[in-house]
Amino acid sequence: MKWLFKLFGKKDQSKNKEVIKEPMGPPITTDMHAHFLPGIDDGAQNIGESLAIIKSLHSMGYTKLVATPHVMSDFFKNTPEIIHKALEEVRTAVKEEGISIEIDAAAEYYLDDVFIKKLRQGEKFLTFGDNYLLMETSFINPCIFIDEAIFLAISKGYKPVIAHPERYGYTYENNFDEIVRWKKLGALLQINALSLAGYYSSNAKRYAERLIDEGHVDFIGTDTHKAKHLHWLEKVRKLSYYNKALGLSLLNHSIKEVPQK
Predict the structure, then answer these.
(1) Which residues of 94-118 are buried (b: 16+ CB within 10 A; e: fewer)?
(2) Which residue, 31, 137, 170, 182, is most buried by CB atoms nearer than 10 A?
(3) Domain boundaries in the chain?
(4) Dist CA 154 CA 260 (whole Å)
(5) 3-class SS of residue 105
(6) How does residue 4 score in pLDDT terms, banded at 50, 70 and 90?
(7) Averaged pLDDT score across all residues of the chain
(8) H/E run at residue 132
(9) 22 vs 210 pLDDT, higher one
(10) From the CB of residue 42, how many other CB atoms can be counted at a distance below 10 Å?
C-alpha cells in the first residue's frame, strides 16, 4: 500500500488561512472512520499507537470512535473474529487508562470481485450505526462493481457509504458527476477531514470543498492511521470549510453511544 500513498499522499498540504469565527453547527463527537486497532492493517501497529490516537481524538472532544480496519482480499484479510479480538484488546487498554470514550468497530471493505461475491451470497458484514456499510474503491481505476455493490447492499438491508470519494483520482478529469451519480443510486458519501487541508492533494481538497458546497456530504471521518494525522486534524478544525461542513445534516450525530458490556 506504500506505493498508493506515494501516488496520492502528502502532495499539497497547502495552508488555508481562512479560519472559522463561529461554528455553523454542532461539533462532531463521533468518528466513524479510523484505523487504530493494533497490527491488523496499515494503521496503528501496536497498542501504544492505538492509545496515542485515541487519547488525541478524545482531547479534541470525540466521545465515540468506530475503528474501520481495511478488508482487502489481496492485502488485509481481516475477518470479524480478527477485528473483534483487536477491538477487545483496545477496549481493555482504554478502560485501564481511564479514558472516558466509547470504542466500537466495523470495517472498510474494498470493492473487488471477492467482496461482490460475498455480497451476492448474503454474507454478513461489519457495520456501524444504522447498518452503515463502509466501502472504498481503487484510487486509480474506475470500479466496475460500484453500481452493483450499491444496489446489492441496499437490497440486503445495508446503507452503503462510499469512503473518501474526493480522493479517487479517476474522477478528477471532469468526472465529478460520477460521484454525484453514486449518491443518486442510493449511496452515502463520507469525506476525510484532512482533505480540507490539502493533506492528500490539491484535487482532493478541491473535490471535498465542492462536495460540501453542493451539500453531498453525509459523514466526515478522520481516517486516522497514525498519530501524526492528529496534528493535521487540529488545523483542519479551524478551517472555514470544516466549519461550513458542520452546518450540513451530518449523520455522524446519529451514531448513538451505547453502554459497553
Answers:
(1) beeeeeebbbbbbbbbbbbeebbee
(2) 31
(3) 27-252
(4) 29
(5) strand
(6) very low
(7) 91
(8) strand 132-136
(9) 210
(10) 16
Cell of 81: 473474529
Q: How many CB atoms lie within 10 A of CB 50?
A: 25
pTM greater than 0.85: yes
Identity (one letter) of the amino acid at 127? Answer: T
Task: Find where cell 461550513 sits.
Answer: 244
CB within 8 Å of 9: residues ≥ 6 apart: 200
CA 140/CA 155 separation, integer angstroms: 28
> What pLDDT is recorded for position 14?
45
Backbone angles phi, psi at 32, to 5 degrees: -110, 10
Give 71-120 pLDDT, tens digit per residue.
998 889 999 999 999 999 999 999 999 999 999 999 999 999 999 999 99
Tell me the three state secondary structure of residue 142. Answer: coil
Distances (CA, A) of 186 to 128, 136, 158: 17, 15, 11
Distance CA 252, CA 2 (A): 29
Whole-number CA gyration radius for the chain:
17
Going by their DSSP bridges, the two strands 132-136 and 159-163 should be labelled as: parallel
pLDDT at position 258: 45
Question: Between the CA of residue 12 and those of 97, 170, 192, 205, what are the distances in Å?
Answer: 36, 18, 15, 9
Top-tier CATH class for 27-252? alpha beta
Q: Would you say how long the chain is, in residues?
A: 261
Residue 110 near residue 71, CB atoms below 8 Å: yes
The residue assigned the cell 458546497 is 213
**Phi (first) and psi of residue 95, to 5 degrees:** -65, -40
Cell of 157: 438491508
Residues 192 and 197: their CA atoms lie apart, in Å, by 10
